[in-house]
Amino acid sequence: DLNMEIVEFVLRNHGVDIVKAWNGREGVDIFASSSVGEFDMILMDVMMPVMNGLDAARKIRSMTRADAQTIPVIAMTANAFQDDVQRSFEVGMNAHITKPLDINKIREAITDVMTKNLSSQTKIGATGFGNWK
């Protein structure tokens, strides 16, 4: 809940509209019932109840809708080992942010997946960042 509040606060302050899901199953259902292109990105906590973020991302990527393969999915997790990063990428996530979350990590990940080829996958560290809107 706290990480969701932090991300929501940061993104809303940058004019981003947010739709929240409280577990992986709810996130999959929200995406599945949305219009194609309705969402620009998914920030996915890996450790969620009902369905974890890895299973949720795998489920989204397996959908037949036009944007299921291209919507950027960013993992947010305390799991920082290389195996954890690899698992995120194996299910189709585009970036892997480790907790504790900070504004620079969030900005870097969002900018990275929105400006690079969406098939690229990047582990995001805590490096500095320039202006972002």
Pick out its properties.
single chain; 133 residues; alpha/beta; 5 helices; 40% helix; 12% strand; globular
Could you characterize what this model shows?
The protein has 133 residues and is of the alpha/beta class. Helix content is 40%, strand content 12%. The protein has helices at 2-13, 24-33, 53-61, 82-90, 103-115; strands at 42-45, 73-77, 95-98, 122-124. Strands 1-2-3-4 form a 4-stranded parallel β-sheet, with helices on both faces. The radius of gyration is 14 Å and the shape is globular. The model is unreliable at 122-133 (pLDDT under 50).
In short:
The chain is α/β, with parallel strands linked by helices and 133 residues long. The chain is built from five helices and four strands. The protein is 40% helix and 12% strand.
Q: Secondary-structure blueprint of this entry?
A:
Blueprint: H1 2-13, H2 24-33, E1 42-45, H3 53-61, E2 73-77, H4 82-90, E3 95-98, H5 103-115, E4 122-124
Parallel strand pairs: 1-2, 2-3, 3-4
Helix pairs in contact: 2-3
